[in-house]
What does this fold into?
Amino acid sequence: MQNIEQDKITSSILSVDSLSVCYGSRKKPIKVVEDVSFDVSAGESLGIVGESGSGKSQTMLAVLRLLGEGGEITSGNIVFDGRDIRSLSNHAMKRVRGNGIALISQDALSALNPAMKVGRQMAEPLVVCDGMSNDASRRKCIDLLDRVGIHGAVSRLECYPHELSGGMRQRVLIAMAISRNPKVLIADEPTTALDVTIQAQILDLIDDLRKDLGMGLVLITHDLGVVAGIADRVSVMYGGRIVETGRTEQIFDAPRHPYTVALLKSIPKIDQSKSERLSPIPGLPVDPRAPLPGCSFSARCEYTKDSCTRSRPALLFAAADGVHQFRCPVDPFGARPESDAENLSRSGGRG
Amino acid sequence: MIPFILRRLIQIIPVIIGVTLATFLLTWLIPGDPTNVLLGPDASEEARERLRRSLGLDRSMAAQYLIYMSNLLSGDLGQSLSFSRPVADVLVSRMANTALLAFAAIVLASVAGVAAGTWAALRPGSLHDRGLTIVVLFLNSMPSFWLGLVLILIFGLQLRLLPVSGMAPSGAGLLSLAAHMILPTITLAAWSLASIARMTRAAVLEVINNDFIRTARSRGLSEWRIVLFHVLPNAIPAVLTVIGMQMGFLFSGAVLTETVFSWPGVGLAMFQAIAIRDIPLIQGGILMLALIFVLINLIVDVLYVYFNPKIKLN
It folds into this structure.
């Protein structure tokens, strides 16, 4: 087991180990990410799923060292391409951003500078950081826009972001992210602001680029359906912690954490009869200002026992491969009848 | 862009008519008799009557306004009672001095204000942010004549570093002119500087929390580049509005500063005109200040479109 772990770390391009992030003052810190570990290899895609406030975006911002005002990495290690992100100088960190790890934000309208033409915005780091000539950067931008499926790229360079459609803006953002051949691409809910038809196109585009360019992909989403078709592995986050992680088919076919099971049940199915209602998860997301002493999901979990509220559950192995792990000592789905598993697996199509 | 400017120029006309009407009526509200000033208190009633007739003061209000307007359209602003010269001559000869002071002040206020506001906004709640808030409050609540007098006291009388009154004598050279300008410029700029700094701080704070700033950071751009090319271009439109308004205030606010420093500009002439009820000069001065105010606003609107491409010109 130790050897497998060792192998994984050496082959992964980005590995995060027991990362914790706090906001607020030192006296009264608010923990938004707690003991989160994951890794991504070149060409691999990892889905991180969780509801709003589960800490998934904060985890990624911590990786880029772009936490908001008052945010701080309190413990853990982040290793990118053999370098310790936490100990890099600001100058070296600037070279990692965009060049090593690129970010695609969720709302492309607010993620683009409204007062700068698309072409100039795309070319800026190419010229400033990579020392490209204006002509060369312009040609590269045209190629990039072509690559992400924007027609008439030459005229689009002269557009302001508000003159493009939502799907086109997201494509521009993707083109910007891949413009410096990053080794890891972080896509933070890249499709939430888009129409359903465009969503599928954008996801396919991201997936194609991942395969073509051999990038590691971290896809952050609240939608299990989105990761189903793309991700090799999935981590489910709740209340700042990873509650279950495994290969995508393991998560969909044999979920072990009650939260994952509840998430899967809340996905609408196309063959669901109208009388059959969706099962929402009762209660509200956990408030990071009032953390629970035990399992973060204990307040909403129907399988909660006394022990759940007392101590933090540890990660348990669900399968012998060491990949599928979950954080639930009660483990109500450990020995499930076969029929139940089939039901759940059918629910996982693209939303 | 050209039709937009033309359209805005046409919109100025009703504003100007309104201003002339207001200034014209204003003079009727001011107590005091202009013949008193011209002939002295001891003049006979007959002599006064004659003067009134020759000046047209015996006609109806409407007739006087029409005469005033028709003269105005032919460029005749009337005769200044105190300078014994045409009002237009007085204003034009002094306008350059006022403009010189106003432009120096707005450049100082804008550059220092935007820099200070940005600096404070980059670290909100820090020591220098709080320091700036105090300085802004101080500058904003200080009357310009008081600040002017204090500056004269310190730099002119105590330290004897700078001239405190008037403009450089003609032929004295640029250096002397600059030395004479320093204290009035600072005095005039202080209030505007504070307002611009405050507005810049608020605007930068609003922009800096936007997603596109994070995008810029995530692409490896340096912090100063992000401030200069991503934050400021988006914060500038809000600041421009304030700068435009301040510019208008600077021309009219120059009355106090010019008086304190005996700066031979329109403001000083206006002060003297008000003191002795030189009504044609008051009217002409107000009209000119209003015109400048409106033109500056037009320029600001044009710049606004330039900085904010989302504004459609129609």
Observations:
- The interface with chain B takes residues 64, 66, 69, 94-99, 102-103, 105, 107, 110-116, 124-125, 128-129, 160, 162, 173, 176, 180 of chain A (CB under 8 Å).
- Chain A has a mean pLDDT of 85.
- Chain A has 13 helices and twelve strands.
- The first strand of chain A starts at residue 12 and ends at 23.
